[in-house]
Specification:
five-stranded parallel β-sheet; 43% helix; Ribose 5-phosphate Isomerase B, Chain: A; 6 helices; alpha/beta
């Protein structure tokens, strides 16, 4: 069974989004847009991710903008989202293990494509450890 993730971006993240989808064909992608490098507003695509997770159509997703900062701030306005901006694999592993992050945020202008591939791979494969971390997650939800 394929794992399903939502993926969304603004214009600054469009090329990285396309590269990630091509690199990971084993993942079933629910593409929430955008669909070109034409200027759009990142909060609109964070809102689509929020909707996808809040309605249960996906459990996890990836958001991409120029730095990853704006789109992660917008997504984290929902209590159902734990979006983590990761710039390396250690951050990706620890945010899944300790924070049960359900959305990975990437900055297309600050993270190289190969590094982004490694970050996505670790984020998707790493499980939440639970245990002592669960009470902390509960305080955020």
């Amino acid at each position: 069974m394929k794992k399903t993730l939502a993926i969304a971006c603004d214009h600054g993240g469009y090329e990285l989004k396309a590269a990630i989808k091509a690199k990971f064909p084993e993942i079933e992608w629910k593409d929430l847009g955008c669909d070109s490098t034409e200027s759009v507003d990142y909060p609109d695509y964070a809102a689509k991710m929020i909707d996808a997770i809040e309605t249960g159509s996906v459990e996890q997703g990836i958001l991409i903008c120029g730095t990853g900062i704006g789109i992660s701030i917008a997504a984290n306005r929902s209590s159902k989202i734990r979006a983590a901006l990761c710039t390396d694999t250690t951050m990706a592993r620890l945010t899944r293990q300790h924070n049960d992050a359900n959305v990975l945020a990437l900055g297309a202008r600050i993270t190289g494509v190969e590094a982004a591939f490694d970050i996505v791979d670790i984020f998707v494969k790493t499980e939440f450890e639970g245990g002592r971390h669960e009470r902390r997650i509960a305080k955020m939800s």
